[in-house]
Amino acid sequence: MRELVLAAHGSAVVEAAAATARLAGAVRRLTGAPVTVAYLDHRPPSLPAVLAGRPGAVVVPLLLGDGYHRTVDVPAVAGRFACAVTPGLRGERAVALALYERLRAAERAAGGPADAVVVAGAGSSRPGGNDGTLVAAGQLGRLLAVPVSVAYCSAVSPSPAEAVARARADGFRRVAVAAHLLAPGRFSRGLEGLRDVCAVSAPLADHPRLARLVAARYEAAALPEAVPLRVA
Question: How much is the pTM?
Answer without folding.
Answer: 0.92
